[in-house]
Records
---
Amino acid sequence: MVKVNFIEDEPAILAAVGVKISQAPFENGNIKDIYEECKADKKKSRELVNMIMKKNEHLILGDFLSCAIILEDMSRLSAVYFWRNVNANNLVFGAGIEASFRVIKPNRYNEAAGDLGKAAFEIYEKAVNSGVPAQDARYILPEGTLTRMIFSAPPRHLGKLASSLKNTPLPELKEIGEKIETLINEKFKLDLPYEELPSKWKFWGKEKIKDEIFLDYREKNHSLSMDMAVKGSLAMYGQLVRQRQILCDIEPLEEIAKSGIFVIPPSFPEEIKKDYKKIADLACKKQIEFIKRQDPNFAYFLLLGQRAKSMIYGKGFQIIEMSKARSEGVAQWEIRNAVGIPITRELAKYKELIKKIGPRCWREGQCKEPQTFKTKNNICKAFSQAGGNWKESLEELLEVLEEPYETFVIKNL
């Protein structure tokens, strides 16, 4: 059962809680314990938040209000579903941070994931122990894997989220929506009217998505408008929807299951690939079994590596920001290939935008590659090749940064 609670404090302290949530192992206590730790030394917490905003430019920490909801033991599926609704185009605003499976070892899954969860966790452990980075090993995990998050937003926007979650077929999402609605009534004494979101992520059905990019530009940055088809793993979408800027219309969950396509991280050795395919085959059988009886719990058996199609919609600086943040060599390889580089190539067709887009080493002529996930390894190929001082063309840079990867299909679904 998901635990949903409400906390109030100064924004910097709640932001510090978010920082800790993103990096603290689950074994180190729950969110309330993390909050008590941040509250006990407020000066240290403020310094942490200000340092991260200044040094790493994680400016979402400056978006926190003086109150937030905290969600413990929610499925990773629910977290992605929640975030997918938070963006400017969907008219929902808020700031939050989720536990990162790129740095935190997941340690449990919900009962609905059943035997698949146990088998997938065993292969995940095997992959990590064989040297596969955690950010890639997570592709093996089911969406029933449990996580946690903190989210801060004005009451009206919390109400919009509550309404959207309540109107889904999955009991967990309904429960989260109902609990958020109750907290709004109790803490703010507001009985907000129902507001429907402009877009929804469907569980059932099928939608046609054409492989195309449409970009309209009228000589001013804020005139930019973009619609783009994207294909990528649910792990990649977990990052993409947390941007909060673009609207990501992912195909219905049923269609993702029936497609049976999986992304293979390039770091997987042959033995892990074989194990991954076995888990994927088991996951697909479970998904179809539940779909046949119209049970929405099929979604918990989707693997993070399962591929989905979507249309993403962006406006103005949202698009430029996606180019800058997601084409960098330190950006996760799949989101760079599927989103950052394609957007950058489209924007590069306009000469007046050419120095406003793309990786920092291109825009500024220098880049000190940051340490990535507490390691001291340089992972950017362009940085290794040019020492952060790229002299060649933008297209040549993008070619260096592209990283090929494979997919496989589970047939006869």
---
Amino acid sequence: MLVDACPSFRKLYDGLNEVHKPASPEILMDDFADHVFGLLENGKTKEFHSIFLVIEEVKLNGDDRAKSLIRDCFFGEIDSIMDKKV
């Protein structure tokens, strides 16, 4: 769902799955967070509305595993990036 919401991530997503055959959801979510943060830093926020609609949907209706990936991997990686920037 996140790849559909953020088409600019598709090439990296496909590459990660090819290298890791397939990539774990944790790796994908960490790299997705890095990608989203990079979009923000470059002022390319066009996809953000769609991305955060998916995140909201998962947080409201996803299973425990999906919620954990969003909370721990996506937001955890964003937090880690922010700590490095300070």
---
Amino acid sequence: MKLLGTAGLLLVLAAAASTTTGCASSCSATPEKLASLKRGMSYDAATGVMGCPGTQVGTQVTHDDISTVEWDGPDRGMVSRTQLDFRDGRLLSFTTGNRGGW
């Protein structure tokens, strides 16, 4: 196995950082994205609108499969959050608010 030199390692790290930064900015909730969400749309369609899968924050297994997925935004970056609620893989509702009661 060939080890990367310092320059090669730096190039790989820079590429990873730019990919992460790009995903984070395209993945945040915006007013335009929220306006495009429609009740009943599939999970795949909703995450397509949002730009990435988000972070699952809750699943309640009852007679219906209910789950909540979260994204940063739309305002103040990581201080605010948007949660989409899905029932049986279909968008039920979404809410936005501040994290931690700020």
